[in-house]
């Protein structure tokens, strides 16, 4: 059933009762899997809803109700989720709780008012010994606030104590409920700390405390296996609040000092997790930076890149920083101001080609230098075809025709590219020079032992020159049914008898039938349509037709035709 169909089962009174409950932190934990806290009195319940399309797959609540039954908490979750999916604004914060009369009190709260206080204190002492989570929450709630001053060590101790209380000292796995408890306690504990950060946001201590908090969160993710997204969500929201406070300070010089301090700390982090923590904040700044501080932020990224790569090299080797810088300047439409801060990145062909294409629209000579550097320093792992094509276009636009000709001659010698061959032929000023070049190429390639890939490229050149006699000569050395099939009509027109001879010569080998059924069928139909049975059988007296050979395949087709 859909959410709407489920809710129609309830009367207005039940829906009104459920709608009065408080819902917090509604979020999509996984695709189509929603979670939230629903508060009822002094208790909070973890509610999950899984959707499949518009259908409700399951709804669960930790209040103890059976899976196939709907409690008020599940109903509240469905009501809120329906509004959320319709695009309505959902209030996601606790409302002020009214003092309940004794008639509305739960049995346990009413009993608490009647029991002797000394007995309650004794019971709490025993409870604290058994349940460290409750003890920690009690200390955070009723302990003396220290909002006036915090050190990094004090905050770190608070977080570690919460981790030990909720997870133990050597826990390697945590369920959703434990993660929820952890984040709830972190939220309570860090509330006064965030007040302290707000007051001291432009001081180094604020950055240090923030980084220690996020480090503890990341450390938990790395050392304790869990599937909840609550830790990452908490870290992101904590960071957003920190940056919002920082960037709303009127003293821009003080903010710039914090940016520089962050970048310098990032440079000297040796531990992987420590670096990840600093880099996390440094990257998220790109989504929150005000326009008036954008230039300073970009300069800090450039300084970080220079430090990481070293200025003595002509190219970069760490793709992460270069890609991040390009993303920031491109997103903010300021690439034109900073394009000379970029260098090619070793073995990152995608980045380099994208960078060059951006530079071409701004500075052709600089784009030419980037391309030449990539080629000269062998920065791409395999071939430089893409870069060479772009460099050729750039040189043509710059009027460097002699350079273009030399490049294409060199590339043709390496790859036998037909487009390069055509370009070179057309570039000659007189026919004698062109004919001399053609003769030289033909002389070298006709004598060379070519693999099928090179032979196919040579045939493209011969087709351009309409030299089908040379094609037939090469097929005598290297029979290829794929090439015969491709140029069959032209070869037949040039010399039909020789073509049949080349086919039968290649077809006498065992396993010579092409693996592609369409190719073998096309070739067979061409032979039967253009040659008589007598011509074919006469050739079979010269060439053999063993098992699994093309010749046997042809022979069987002729016999089958004769029986009809």
First and last CA, distance: 66 Å
Mean pLDDT: 86
Low-confidence segments, given as residue ranges, are 94-104
Proportion of beta-strand residues: 5-15%
The largest sheet has its strands arranged as 1-2-3-4
- Rg on CA atoms, Å: 38 Å
Instruction: Return the structural class.
Output: alpha+beta
Task: Count helical runs.
Answer: 29
| Total beta strand runs | 4
Shape: elongated
Helix content: 55-70%
Main sheet makeup:
4 strands, antiparallel
Protein name: SWIM-type domain-containing protein
Short overview:
This is SWIM-type domain-containing protein. The protein has 29 helices and four strands. With 564 residues, the protein is of the alpha+beta class.
Structure write-up:
- This is SWIM-type domain-containing protein.
- It comes from Myroides marinus.
- Among the domains are: 3-85, no CATH class; 136-288; 449-563, no CATH class.
- The two termini are 66 Å apart.
- The protein has a four-stranded antiparallel β-sheet, with helices on one face.
- It has 564 residues and is an alpha+beta fold.
- The chain has 29 helices and four strands.
How do the strands and helices of this protein lay out in sequence?
Blueprint (H helix, E strand, L loop, with lengths): L2 H5 L4 H8 L2 E9 L2 E8 L2 E10 L2 E7 L10 H14 L21 H8 L2 H14 L1 H11 L9 H16 L8 H24 L4 H20 L6 H18 L4 H16 L4 H17 L2 H19 L9 H13 L3 H4 L10 H12 L3 H13 L8 H13 L3 H15 L2 H10 L3 H17 L4 H14 L2 H10 L3 H6 L1 H7 L1 H12 L9 H14 L2 H8 L9 H14 L1
Antiparallel strand pairs: 1-2, 2-3, 3-4
Helix pairs in contact: 2-3, 5-6, 6-7, 6-8, 7-8, 7-9, 8-10, 9-10, 9-12, 10-12, 11-12, 11-13, 13-14, 16-17, 16-18, 17-18, 18-19, 19-20, 22-23, 25-26, 27-29, 28-29
Protein name: SWIM-type domain-containing protein
């Amino acid at each position: 059933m859909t959410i709407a169909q489920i809710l129609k089962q309830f009367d207005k009174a039940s829906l009104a009762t459920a709608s009065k409950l408080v819902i917090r932190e509604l979020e999509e934990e996984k695709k189509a899997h929603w979670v939230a806290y629903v508060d009822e009195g002094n208790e909070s319940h973890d509610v999950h809803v899984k959707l499949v399309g518009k259908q409700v797959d399951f709804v669960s609540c930790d209040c103890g109700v059976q899976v196939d039954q709907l409690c008020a908490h599940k109903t509240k979750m469905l009501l809120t989720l329906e509004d959320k999916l319709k695009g309505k604004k959902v209030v996601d914060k606790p409302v002020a709780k009214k003092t309940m009369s004794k008639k509305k009190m739960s049995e346990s709260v009413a009993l608490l008012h009647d029991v002797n206080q000394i007995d309650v204190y004794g019971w709490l002492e025993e409870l604290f010994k058994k349940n460290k989570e409750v003890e920690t929450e009690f200390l955070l709630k009723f302990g003396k606030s220290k909002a006036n001053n915090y050190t990094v060590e004090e905050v770190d101790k608070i977080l570690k104590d919460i981790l030990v209380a909720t997870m133990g000292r050597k826990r390697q796995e945590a369920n959703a409920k434990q993660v929820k408890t952890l984040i709830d306690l972190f939220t309570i504990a860090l509330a006064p700390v965030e007040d302290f950060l707000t007051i001291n946001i432009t001081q180094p201590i604020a950055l240090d405390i923030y980084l220690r908090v996020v480090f503890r969160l990341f450390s938990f993710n790395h050392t304790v296996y869990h599937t909840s997204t609550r830790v990452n969500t908490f870290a992101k929201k904590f960071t957003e609040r920190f940056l919002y406070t920082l960037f709303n300070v009127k003293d821009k010089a003080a903010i710039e000092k914090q940016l520089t301090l962050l970048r310098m700390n990032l440079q000297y982090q040796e531990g992987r997790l420590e670096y990840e923590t600093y880099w996390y904040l440094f990257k998220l700044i790109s989504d929150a930076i005000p326009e008036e501080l954008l230039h300073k932020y970009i300069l800090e990224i450039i300084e970080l890149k220079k430090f990481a790569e070293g200025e003595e090299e002509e190219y970069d080797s760490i793709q992460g920083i270069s890609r991040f810088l390009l993303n920031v300047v491109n997103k903010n439409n300021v690439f034109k101001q900073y394009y000379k801060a970029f260098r090619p990145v070793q073995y990152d062909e995608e980045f380099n080609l994208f960078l060059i294409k951006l530079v071409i629209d701004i500075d052709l000579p600089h784009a030419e230098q980037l391309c030449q550097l990539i080629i000269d320093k062998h920065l791409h792992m395999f071939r430089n075809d893409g870069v060479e094509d772009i460099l050729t276009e750039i040189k043509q636009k710059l009027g460097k025709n002699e350079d273009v000709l030399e490049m294409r001659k060199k590339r043709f010698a390496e790859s036998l590219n037909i487009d390069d061959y055509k370009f070179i032929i057309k570039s000659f000023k007189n026919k004698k020079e062109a004919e001399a070049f053609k003769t030289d190429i033909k002389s070298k390639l006709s004598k060379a032992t070519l693999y099928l890939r090179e032979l196919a490229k040579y045939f493209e050149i011969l087709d351009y020159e309409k030299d089908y006699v040379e094609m037939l000569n090469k097929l005598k050395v290297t029979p290829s049914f794929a090439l015969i099939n491709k140029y069959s009509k032209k070869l037949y027109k040039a010399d039909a008898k020789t073509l049949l001879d080349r086919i039968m010569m290649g077809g006498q080998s065992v396993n010579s039938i092409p693996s592609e059924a369409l190719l073998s069928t096309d070739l067979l139909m061409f032979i039967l349509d253009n040659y008589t049975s007598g011509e074919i059988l006469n050739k079979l007296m010269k060439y053999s037709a063993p098992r699994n050979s093309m010749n046997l395949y042809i022979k069987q087709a002729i016999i089958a035709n004769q029986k009809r």
